[in-house]
Amino acid sequence: xxxxxxxxxxxxxxxxxxxxxxxxxxxxxxxxxxxxxxxxxx
Length: 42
Known about the structure:
This protein is mainly alpha-helical. It has 1 helix and no strands.
């Protein structure tokens, strides 16, 4: 990400939680951005 970019959170959209790639991607993003990720609503 650009150092001067300001964001308040990351929203996951159109997530199919039945796939491993979705689960792995979400986990990776949460590990990287921590508190900036918003919960996934199914």
